[in-house]
Amino acid sequence: MFLKNGAPSFGSSKSLARSEFRSRIPFTLSLTQQKQFGPQCCPYNHRRSYNTTSADGEPKQDRCTPAMVWPNTARPTPYEIFNSKPGAPYSKGKFYELAKQYHPDRYTEQGDHLDENGLSRATKLERYKLVVAANDILSNPVKRREYDQFGLGWATGEVRDLNEELRAKDQAWRTAPNSPAMNSSWQDWEEWRHRRDGTAPKQEPLFMSNGGFAIVLCACVVVFIWAQASQASQRSSRVMQARDKMHQAATDNLYNTRMQRATLSQNSRVQLFLHKREFGDNPFEPVGQLPAESPKK
């Protein structure tokens, strides 16, 4: 400030210097305002606010920027984590913001306890690892180009070597269904093309149709059942014959015993018993021919 005659005004210069000095002092809240608004305005961005002067002379206070929102997808991409598009330039500031939000040194909760945003220590640590992996890809032009073209470097949030990625993709291609990896001759390639295009001929029966095979199978089952039933009937018939033969022998023995008791004397029956015990049923000597009675004395 100058007077009309061009001499400087020291009072005005002192007031201007005092205002500039005050503008550079960090803006702090009073005790009442701290109780009302809290010690910090953002849960993750611990910044100090300064009272600055705009170009038009009006004071303007810097406010803390809101925390970046984590994507809702289960497996976010690096672009979703940094909230940017594939063609957008890389921003180091977004990495700093995310790193400050999820850095392990800023954890205050212990164990499985949740913070004011409902996040556990393990969740924030996992997010921090994803942020570092995403920054490693997006900050490197070569890795970013490989990720944009082939999707390399981002498998479940882990950055792997290019050779490992290529080996994994080659193994997946070889083991995929209907893969041409095992085609060795032109016949294999023709069959593979037919399967791929859906022009493969229908399978023809080699020996007989399905209906004929079912008829033959049913006939075999019927023959087997008939053979089992016939064998069971024959066994039953043999058992019945053996039982009848045994009954007939018992009947004949009882009949002969009764006839001998009725027609033979006591001495003749004793001689017949001794004869059967000694020789059994001798075929050369009929059973009906009894030994002669000894003459009576």
Morphology:
elongated
Per DSSP, what share of the residues sits in E-state strands of 2 or more residues?
A: under 5%
How many alpha or pi helices?
10
Count of DSSP strands: 2
The CATH architecture of the domain at 78-174 is: Orthogonal Bundle
Distance between the termini: 190 Å
CATH superfamily of the domain at 78-174: DnaJ domain
Q: How would you classify the helix and strand content by structural class?
A: mainly alpha
Low-confidence stretches: 1-64, 286-290
CATH class of the domain at 78-174: Mainly Alpha
CATH topology of the domain at 78-174: Helix Hairpins
Helix content: 40-55%
Query: What order do the helices and strands follow?
Result: HHEEHHHHHHHH
Radius of gyration: 56 Å
For the biggest sheet, the summary is: 2 strands, antiparallel
Strand ordering within the main sheet = 1-2
* Average of per-residue pLDDT values: 72
